[in-house]
Write a sequence for this structure.
């Protein structure tokens, strides 16, 4: 896999991923649980932000969680150990060269993974081949083009676009959420169903103002500042104005909207 | 009221409003009903696209539906008569000069009205004054900046932006959906609660592809072609390319997203 991970691997980024997972757990995961005895592949577990939730919600299922980064795997393992989970096994592996036999899994789950891959349909087809007959796949992705807010700001949209461009340059696709339906159909899944999960934040929801608008979304955009400047796609002043305007949407009269997309299909 | 109604009053536009109301009834209205005996002001009923639904869902409530246009009122009356409704009374009136005493209504309802007003907070404050103590207000608005789709298209976004600009030039605000929370707080309502109503359309939902992507949204944008050209804000070729790209999102691998916002508050 030749993609770089656009968000990097530093500790601040990991804190962001954990805040995000905490705030969004119900919205994204409340309708995912697997029957006792089933074997589930989590493809691209990263630092385990979703793994703990997944495994806790399906205590009778067994999870095989893989990631390409050994460091991320080590952190994910620490998190599931800290949570006292015994139904998760980790393995370092590339999604395009998985060490599993065909039809080894009852279900496959992946969250915020396809957005980083240059060949998402090929990855989906590989995952499909790992499913037993009747098995399901569940994919969750964001879509950075779904962000809009009040006060509206061209500078803020420009700063967001820096991440979209960097992710594209790294071989990924930050607008993949809206594309899950056609991608999964193209990969051959049946009964594909996509449901949007819109995060709406106004100042009557202070936990989301902090946990999502500021610490998840704006922090994520802020996190690509150096890369965006190094790539020459934005001037420092314009980028910083955009970040200020994103924080401005967390004010008393501000509003922030973003959508995730959750897709399920039959293998 | 010195605003022009950006969508005009021609028959094709009325057909569009009725298609829209049919497709979106459940999404927008399923959680609105009023107790028997209550008296409800519908402010800005237009051609009655929402009036029939409102009155059918609350058969024991009495509705006073007002609009500034006598022609629209006449059409709305024909529709409620055709539906056999007897709990709706119509009256031609300007929202900024309403012929009602203070605290005359138990509830106020308005749908797709604030977007056309240059002083939305003033209108909300007037409506607040008409509510009895403990009465509620319900406002529903779209937000044309919430539209995104696959395949993405700058031409399509440009065509959408023509409607946003025309509505602004006419004194309105096509991005008002996201602003309902701060506007209602500013107008003095208590317990303001906003819930987004996202319309997600892929080709597994053919009724929405036809009823929303094509006949509601794209038809609405197409409907401002002559005004946009007359205003000199777009070239014919660019506008037509945008419309083609919007129809393209109704294809087998296309996806279309749009959000409405529904706000409630206490007077």
């Amino acid at each position: 896999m030749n993609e770089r991970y656009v968000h990097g691997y530093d500790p601040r980024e990991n804190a962001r991923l954990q805040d995000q997972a905490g705030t969004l757990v119900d919205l994204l995961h409340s309708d995912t649980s697997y029957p006792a005895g089933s074997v589930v592949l989590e493809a691209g577990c990263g630092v385990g932000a979703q793994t703990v939730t997944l495994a806790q919600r399906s205590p009778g299922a067994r999870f095989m969680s893989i990631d390409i980064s050994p460091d991320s795997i080590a952190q994910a393992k620490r998190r599931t150990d800290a949570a006292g989970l015994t139904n998760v096994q980790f393995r370092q592996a590339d999604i395009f060269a998985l060490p599993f036999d065909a039809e080894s899994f009852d279900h496959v789950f992946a969250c915020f993974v396809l957005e980083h891959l240059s060949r998402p349909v090929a990855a989906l087809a590989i995952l499909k081949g790992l499913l037993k007959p009747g098995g399901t796949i569940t994919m969750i992705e964001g879509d950075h083009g779904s962000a809009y807010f009040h006060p509206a700001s061209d500078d803020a949209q420009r700063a967001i676009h820096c991440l979209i461009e960097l992710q594209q340059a790294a071989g990924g696709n930050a607008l993949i959420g809206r594309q899950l339906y056609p991608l999964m159909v193209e990969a051959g899944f049946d009964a594909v169903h996509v449901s949007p999960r819109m995060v709406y934040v106004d100042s009557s929801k202070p936990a989301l103002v902090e946990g999502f608008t500021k610490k998840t979304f704006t922090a994520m955009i802020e996190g690509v500042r150096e890369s965006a400047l190094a790539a020459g796609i934005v001037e420092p002043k314009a980028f910083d104005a955009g970040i200020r305007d994103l924080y401005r949407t967390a004010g008393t009269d501000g509003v922030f909207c973003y959508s995730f997309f959750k897709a399920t299909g039959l293998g």
The longest strand of chain A covers residues 190-202. Chain A touches chain B through 30 residues (CB under 8 Å). The first helix of chain A runs from residue 11 to 29.
